[in-house]
Amino acid sequence: MTGEGDCCEPAWLDDLEIDAWRRLAAVLTVLPSELDAQMQKRADLNQFEYHVLSYLSEAPDRTLRISDLATLVRGSLSRMSHLIKRLERRGWLRREPAPEDGRYTNAILTDAGYEKVVSVAPVQLDVVRQLVLGQLTRVQLKQLREIGNRLLANVDSFKCVE
């Protein structure tokens, strides 16, 4: 049953959709591991760890609820819990109950963690520019931002439906 109007026939991708999807899938496969490899080699951190430290460095009093931090870096609470313990062992942050509501736990960037993120920031900027941003024009960067916003909003709305 492949006739028109068949409810069970998939809506196949056209040539442009196939090409766009395959290129995006390739980027999603290759880029994260390359970013992590470069950061690990040059700064002894992966991208996710850097983003956590970076968000904390920009937060008031270098403090965020762990649940809010997980939302910001788009990580699960389970992944965040493991990462927080690892970063705590390295002396880069500490955990404390949230004073305004003890049901929550805050992650607090230590002075050593702040020094780490400040020292690593130039490396991270170089890696990101070298692998991604430096390859695009200003117009393409604006398009990439808009595409990213649209895709993330769709993924977020899809999560809400589940």
Summarize the structure.
The chain has 6 helices and 3 strands, in the order ααβααββαα. It has helices at 15-43, 47-58, 66-73, 77-89, 111-131, 138-161, and strands spanning 63-65, 93-97, 105-109. The longest helix has 29 residues, at 15-43.
SSE topology string:
HHEHHEEHH
Averaged pLDDT: 92
Helix content: 55-70%
Strand order, sheet with most strands: 1-3-2
Quote the beta fraction: 5-15%
Number of helices: 6
Q: In the CATH hierarchy, what is the superfamily of the domain at 22-131?
A: Winged helix-like DNA-binding domain superfamily/Winged helix DNA-binding domain
Oligomer: single chain
What is the overall shape? globular
- The structure class reads mainly alpha
The whole-angstrom Rg is 20 Å
Number of E-type strands: 3
Q: Tell me the span between the first and last alpha carbons.
A: 31 Å
Largest sheet: 3 strands, antiparallel
CATH topology of the domain at 22-131: Arc Repressor Mutant, subunit A
CATH architecture classification of the domain at 22-131: Orthogonal Bundle
CATH class division of the domain at 22-131: Mainly Alpha
Low-confidence parts, pLDDT < 50 over ≥5 residues? none
Protein name: MarR family transcriptional regulator
Organism: Virgisporangium aurantiacum
GO molecular function: DNA-binding transcription factor activity
Domain HTH marR-type: 17-153
Itemize the secondary structure elements and their pairings.
Elements (H helix, E strand, L loop, with lengths): L14 H29 L3 H12 L4 E3 H8 L3 H13 L3 E5 L7 E5 L1 H21 L6 H24 L1
Antiparallel strand pairs: 1-3, 2-3
Helix pairs in contact: 1-5, 2-3, 2-5, 3-4
